[in-house]
From TrEMBL:
It comes from the Bacteria. InterPro entries: AtuA-like_ferredoxin_dom (IPR056362). Pfam families: AtuA_ferredoxin. The lineage of its organism: Bacteria, Bacillati, Bacillota, Erysipelotrichia, Erysipelotrichales. This is AtuA-like ferredoxin-fold domain-containing protein. It comes from Faecalibacillus faecis. Residues 1-99 form the AtuA-like ferredoxin-fold domain.
Length: 100
């Protein structure tokens, strides 16, 4: 299944840092998301885009994970020559991740 089938995303960016929250639609899916959407998985998934550290924060009371992706936006939204290099683009791409 695709992550977007059980979760949605909120994103933000500041400079060269992207923040992606993955929020389960149903509380009962949170443990699966927590197990499958790890820092290591994101490092591999975004290996050509994110060149810095990825940190995951767990927010069980709202069934969400928050990821901080450093060196992720080609120098920052206003400096990058990439088309639409914003956090919202990375959030949409993450929801296309296949999970078991």
């Amino acid at each position: 299944m695709l992550l977007k089938e059980i979760a949605h995303s909120r994103t933000g960016d500041k400079g060269n840092i992207s923040v992606i929250s993955v929020i389960a639609y149903k509380d009962e899916d949170y443990d699966l998301i927590k197990e499958k959407v790890t820092e290591e998985k994101l490092k591999d998934y975004f290996k050509d885009i994110v060149h810095g550290k990825i940190t995951r924060y767990e927010m069980p009371t709202i069934s969400a994970l928050n990821f901080v992706l450093e060196d992720a936006l080609g120098g920052g939204v206003t400096r990058s020559l990439a088309i639409d290099m914003h956090g919202k683009t990375l959030g949409s791409a993450l929801l296309e991740m296949e999970i078991d």
